[in-house]
Design a protein that fits this description.
Uridine Diphospho-n-acetylenolpyruvylglucosamine Reductase, domain 1, 5-stranded mixed β-sheet, 6-stranded antiparallel β-sheet, Uridine Diphospho-n-acetylenolpyruvylglucosamine Reductase, domain 2
Length: 325
């Protein structure tokens, strides 16, 4: 069955229209042979997971696929549902730590789902469209709404799944519609009012569902106002580390406080496990200083969490995603 990387909360399915792409269901017991034959055009065996991760850590994906159409994604999901193998969905790889072994099953990258079209104040974009491209294209068109996303790496699908944002604003605030691929390969369309978001959480980010396409609503504005608003978020990110490879913020901010401050108070800056080190610039960032393993990262995350809890009594929650552990 498909497994969605940005696993947050399970939700009940609403009465949306459901489209079935009619994929075959007669998959043999030897699904690997069938899968390699059917998807040879887009398939890599034993692909490096480290190459797919911003942190540069991880072992191998048994099968790695990069579909370039929604129909192909639906076929793969249906195949996995019928044959019973896991499908791991990867966005831009900017907030994930892979294990060091082999990730059995299929790892699916959405980065080739990169279609986007503008219609006045509306943008329809697929999951693999890079967030920096959306921010810059909106500014060129003098359309306001996503200035808070300045500096957020990765793809649209991952940003929506984790409700990425800053300054109390997130991607869920600008969405009009969301198209998802369900675990059985069917497609659902969700409209504003049928989904919701909160801090680093989006209601449609259930296990086994891929956020495939989004419609974003902007507002007409002036170049000066957009630049002024963007500058606020640009300055806020100046305190983030630029050295080495990182997966962004390690922990979510607890209510009313900052994970970075708590980690700093607990003495975590500069802590090291193998090639993984806590940034001396911002304690909520773990850096691959060279040769780090996935286990190095995970052990350092646990050490930092323990030190904060011992110092403050607060248990930090991961913002970074762990896969294969």
């Amino acid at each position: 069955m498909p497994i969605f990387l940005y696993n947050l909360d399970r939700i009940s399915i609403k009465h949306n229209a459901k489209r079935d792409y009619g994929v075959r269901c007669n998959v043999s017991a030897d699904w690997r042979t069938d899968f390699k034959k059917d998807y040879a055009r887009i398939l890599q065996e034993r692909a490096s997971l480290a190459a797919l991760s911003a942190l540069g850590v991880g072992g191998e994906a048994e099968f790695f696929v990069e579909p370039d159409s929604l129909n192909e994604v639906c076929e793969i999901f249906r195949f996995g549902s019928v044959a019973g193998f896991p499908v791991y969905v990867l966005g831009g790889g900017t907030n994930v730590v892979f294990s060091d072994g082999t990730l059995n099953g299929v790892t699916l990258s959405a980065r080739r789902l990169c279609g986007m079209s503008w219609d006045g104040e509306l943008l329809v974009a697929e999951a693999g469209v890079p967030m920096p491209l959306i921010v810059s294209e909106a500014a060129k068109r003098r359309l306001a709404g996503v200035e808070f996303a300045y500096g957020i790496p990765g793809s649209l699908g991952g940003a929506v799944a984790g409700n990425a944002g800053a300054g109390g604003r997130g991607m869920s605030d600008v969405l009009e519609e969301v198209t998802t691929v369900e675990r059985d390969g069917s497609v659902r369309e969700w409209h504003n009012g049928e989904f919701s978001g909160s801090y680093r959480s989006f209601s449609l980010s259930a296990t086994g569902r891929l956020i495939a396409k989004c419609k974003i609503k902007f507002q007409n504005s002036s170049r000066e106002d957009i630049e002024r608003e963007t500058e606020i978020f640009k300055k806020a990110r100046e305190g983030q580390p630029r050295e080495g490879r990182s997966a962004g913020c390690t922990f979510k901010n607890p209510p009313g406080d900052s994970a970075g401050r708590l980690l700093d108070v607990a003495g975590c800056k500069g802590l090291r496990v193998g090639g993984a080190v806590v940034s001396g610039v911002h304690a909520n960032f773990i850096i691959n200083s060279g040769g780090a393993s996935g286990m190095d990262i995970v052990e350092l995350i646990g050490l930092c969490r323990d030190m904060v809890f011992q110092k403050t009594g607060i248990s930090l929650e991961n913002e970074i995603k762990l896969l294969g552990f």
